[in-house]
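Fold this: Lipocalin/cytosolic fatty-acid binding domain-containing protein
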Amino acid sequence: MKKLVLFFSMLMCSVALSSSSLPLDTVDYVDLDRYLGKWYEIARFDQSFQKGCTAVEANYSLRKDGDIKVINTCRVGSPDGEYKEAEARAWVVDEETNAKLKVQFFLRGIKLPIFAGNYWILELDEDYQYAMVGDKSRKYLWILSRTKELDEKIYLELVAKAKDLHFDVSKLLKTQQ
């Protein structure tokens, strides 16, 4: 019985300390006008909806209703591979910082938070030249840059920060450009 109690106690401790239960801070403030535009994906946690994607770009623009239009593109298999495009709608959920957004690819005509994923800006260069995006579950992580290549020193600093934030950085996949 003692072994069983010890096992369940350890299990509960591990659940309580899981990374998704840890707090996750975003940047203090995002000027959305400066954030809009083209971003190149430098690295990501691979997801089923991005399998095989290379040369990944995200383009953000303002919609007439004040939300953000998202156009994600990639090439499948290689930078010369088949072109894929996905459109989404994003909106701010934390108006104090503008650093927490929801992104919805399905039924974009209306906001349906149940179909939207979290997009939390965790790191942002003061000149808006690179960013790191993820969410509290720590299942999603992207490193983005305004240019196709990011200085290796900056990349390693972002990876170190992600590790400090309890992301499993061994899952990071560098994006082929």
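Confidence is low (pLDDT under 50) at residues 1-19. Helices lie at 2-16, 32-35, 152-164.
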